[in-house]
Amino acid sequence: MKREKKIANKNLILLLLGRMISDTGTGIQMIIIPLYIIDMGGSAATVGLFSFLSLVPLLIAYPFAGVIGDRLNRKIIMVATDIASAAAILGLTFAAYTDKINLILLLTVQVIVSLLNGLFDPATKAMLPQLVAPEKLTQANSTLASLRTLSGLLSPILGVVLYGKLGIASIFLINGISFLLSGGCSTLIKYKHVKRESVAGVQGYISDLSQGIKFVLDNKIISKLCTFFLLIYAIIQPIFTVVLPLFFKTQLTYSDKQYGYLQMILILGALLGSILVALLFGKEKKVSKPLMIGCGLLMFTMLAFSSLLFPHILYSLGTGTLLYFVFLSGILFLLSVAIMLINVPVQTFIQKHTPDEYMSRMFSIVGMITKGGMPFGGLVYGLVLNYAPVHYVMSSVSILLLLISVTFLSSLLKTSNFL
Predict the structure, then answer these.
(1) Roughly what angle, to the nearest 10 degrees, separates helices 103-131 and 44-71?
(2) Out of 5, 144, 174, 181, which residue is the most buried by the measure of CB atoms under 10 Å away?
(3) pTM score of the predicted model
(4) In this predicted model, what pLDDT tens digit does every residue of 366-401 receive, in sequence order?
(5) Of 190, 223, 244, which residue is a domain's last?
């Protein structure tokens, strides 16, 4: 028993270490590439295209990734995609070092890496429940979320320093090495693949994907959680990418440096939220308690955030004062905490209640939902804010979110196995 526990702990450490290393390398590159594109003479449209190509290929890969992850050895998928990503990015390193890099090559490699990430992600999330006991899943997911958030905190600092002193080739080199190290960690994980019978060919893949979708639709709790995830991510994430930058630049008088501080505060909030889930709810058998607290905190912070945007509040506190910055950063900090209090328990519940043969397909569907709703939500925000003041838009969004959360929670709490 002790030996099995030691192996399980070693496997989890290897998985977590590999993810943190590759997330840090990827984060460094993703932070710097927009700056590099502009330095190369690219326009804002080129930066937007890079952002588009970072997400859309991943979404396209997800349906196939789910089926592949449930058919093939997940460990081999992780190792192969890490090595392929490393090869592509190290190729960029050579091109940058020899001054042969150009925008077309950069964007092409980004498409390849995004597709590979789409294959990698569902396999990783599906493997986690096989490496830890069910009662340890919340702690494992919380630790993974904490490390990923920590890498997000380190990446901008490391990226700016490295790019400024050593140039773009160093950024690509470090990211390529990070994928190699991540692949090495995955290789050392002791994992037994359970092969299942499946129909070969295109028809078999379509059949497997249909079965995965049917599993989600037939499971009332999981389908409700997926719907809630779609709505939450579509509503909340564009606040950070569309509403906040627009409001900060047009309504406030702070510097870009203070905007950077605000971004760090958001990351620290997410880090604290993921840690709190493990400390306070790591031993909870049900996820309803942290989820209810997270939804309650989310509703409170959204109402508080929308209140801060009203002109008379801006006039009273001042558009460039320390007092207003403290209020704004404090509310956004709590908003990040709330998102993690929702995210980690939902992911844990899905892992606990999904059979292993559906696990990769399940997380490919969840991935499409969480990431697919963001660009659509951002588009809607962008269109609406052209015609309506930001404080009215966010007040309406807060009320809508309140109604969605109350409806969602009241529906879930009627289900016995969720309580």
Answers:
(1) 40
(2) 144
(3) 0.74
(4) 777 777 666 677 777 777 887 888 889 899 989 998
(5) 190
